[in-house]
């Protein structure tokens, strides 16, 4: 520090090493008179996290932190979401949405360690990520100021490049992608460009993880996934930790074109957005887990869990991970998974991951009760009495009301047609 200079407060900046976050380092210093601590997290996006940390220091950050959080991400965020069956609007496995609250939580921890007064991120003003970051910050550390430069500065890409040149910020001379892409080990998202017209078929260059199903191998691949209490624990008889298991499934599924998702989704901020996702491991594991549950959950538990799954997905998508309601729902999820252990066999072929076998020592399926062959132990004689009692209320109402009023039984919509014919 120069003689006579005043010590400045610090801000923790979520730093990716791209143009926008690199420009933010001096911009925040100028506008807010804060020293920037760059913060980068490896969630399996395949980037050189140490190289990004070094770039932040060259860009002007007073300090730079890089954390490998892949195992934390899988164990504490991905697996709970999988156990819950959380898929937003039935299609999106929530890869980016799961990563944001973890990054925000780690940023709050870093703010405490560095004595920072603020946190900053590079989210736009029309996306969901700003909500996930801001709400997490407000929940875990309401005393921290939240800075979101992209919502404030209104700089175009050319403006950002000019600002970078003025401040001697190293920017790689790469061709700008026509898409906006985000990824971690659980999935890849792609939007903007020609994808903004939901009528247009996604072009080949929008995909990076998956083979065109039409060009996928002509022979299927079979895999067996092991689960213990709802969590994947192995592949093809080999015990595996979460991150390498997901990496392996992404590679296998991607080779066979599995995991492409084209989704017009409802954003939290009130607009519809066309999103392209690639999530081979996510699609395979969600389908496999759901099929294993079909063996191990009772009818009532399975039916109720569909409601929980939707609420759980909304909580994640809407940035409410650190809520009491989430804790309450997960208590049910964890309890429901006590007996969801076993193996699931999946066939990978031409863009489809089809479950072709499932077994569990906790299975509620009994072949002796289900079979129509010899060895059938189902009590057929009990069926007559069961049916009699099951239909008793309907029979009673028919005799005492519907048949007595002379109208009888109309098919749905038939009464309307009758009334129209009389007019």
Task: Provide an overview of this structure.
The structure is a single chain. With 423 residues, this protein is α/β, with parallel strands linked by helices. Among the domains are: 10-166, HUPs (Rossmann fold), CATH 3.40.50.620; 185-297 and 339-364, Argininosuccinate synthetase, chain A, domain 2, CATH 3.90.1260. The chain has 15 helices and 14 strands. It has helices at residues 19-32, 49-59, 70-84, 95-114, 129-140, 149-153, 157-166, 242-255, 280-296, 299-317, 324-336, 367-370, 381-390, 392-402, 414-422; strands at residues 10-14, 35-42, 63-68, 118-120, 145-147, 180-184, 187-191, 221-228, 231-235, 238-239, 260-266, 272-278, 342-349, 352-359. The protein has a five-stranded parallel beta sheet, with helices on both faces.
Q: Nutshell version of this structure?
A:
The protein is an alpha/beta fold and about 425 residues long.
Number of helices: 15
Q: In angstroms, what separates the terminal alpha carbons? A: 91 Å
What is the typical, i.e. mean, pLDDT?
Answer: 91
What's the total count of β strands?
14
H-E string: EHEHEHHEHEHHEEEEEHEEHHHEEHHHH
Strand proportion, as a percent range, falls in 15-25%
Radius of gyration: 27 Å
Second-tier CATH architecture of the domain at 10-166: 3-Layer(aba) Sandwich
Strand count, sense and barrel status of the largest sheet are: 5 strands, parallel
CATH H level of the domain at 10-166: which superfamily?
HUPs
Helix content: 40-55%
Question: Under the CATH scheme, which class of the domain at 10-166?
Answer: Alpha Beta
Broad shape: elongated
Structural class by sheet pairing and helices: alpha/beta
């Amino acid at each position: 520090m120069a003689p006579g200079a005043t010590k400045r407060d610090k801000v923790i900046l979520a730093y990716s090493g791209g143009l926008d976050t690199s420009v933010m380092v001096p911009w925040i210093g100028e506008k807010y008179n804060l020293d920037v601590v760059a913060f980068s997290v490896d969630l399996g996006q395949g980037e050189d996290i140490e190289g990004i940390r070094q770039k932040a220091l060259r860009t002007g950050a007073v300090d730079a932190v890089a954390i490998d959080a892949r195992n934390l991400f899988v164990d504490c965020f991905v697996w709970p979401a999988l156990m819950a069956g959380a898929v937003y609007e039935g299609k999106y496995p929530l890869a980016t949405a799961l990563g944001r609250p973890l990054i925000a939580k780690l940023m709050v921890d870093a703010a405490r360690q560095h004595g920072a007064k603020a946190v900053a991120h590079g989210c736009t003003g029309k996306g969901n990520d700003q909500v996930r970051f801001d709400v997490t910050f407000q929940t875990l550390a309401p005393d921290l100021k939240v800075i979101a430069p992209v919502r404030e500065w209104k700089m175009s890409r050319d403006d950002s490049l000019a600002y970078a040149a003025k401040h001697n910020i190293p920017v790689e001379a790469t061709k700008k992608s026509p898409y906006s892409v985000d990824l971690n080990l659980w999935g890849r998202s792609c939007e903007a460009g020609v994808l903004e017209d939901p009528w247009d078929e996604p072009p080949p260059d929008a995909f990076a993880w998956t083979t065109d199903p039409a060009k996928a191998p002509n022979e299927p691949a079979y895999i067996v996934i092991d689960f213990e209490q709802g969590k994947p624990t192995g592949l093809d008889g080999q015990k595996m930790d979460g991150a390498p298991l997901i990496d392996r499934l992404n590679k296998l599924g991607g080779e066979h074109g599995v995991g492409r998702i084209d989704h017009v989704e409802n954003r939290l901020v009130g607009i519809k957005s066309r999103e392209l996702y690639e999530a081979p491991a996510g699609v395979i594991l969600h389908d496999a887990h759901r099929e294993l549950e079909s063996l191990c959950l009772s009818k009532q538990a399975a039916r109720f869990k569909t409601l929980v799954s939707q609420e759980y997905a909304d909580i994640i998508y809407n940035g409410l991970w650190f809520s009491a309601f989430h804790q309450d729902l997960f208590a049910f999820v964890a309890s429901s998974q006590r007996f969801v252990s076993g193996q699931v066999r999946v066939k990978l072929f031409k863009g489809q991951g089809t479950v072709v076998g499932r077994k569990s020592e906790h299975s509620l399926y009994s072949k002796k009760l289900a079979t129509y062959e010899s060895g059938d132990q189902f009590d057929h004689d009990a069926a007559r009495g069961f049916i009699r009692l099951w239909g008793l209320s309907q029979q009673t109402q028919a005799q005492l009301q519907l048949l007595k009023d002379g109208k009888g039984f109309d098919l749905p919509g038939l009464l309307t047609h009758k009334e129209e014919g009389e007019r």
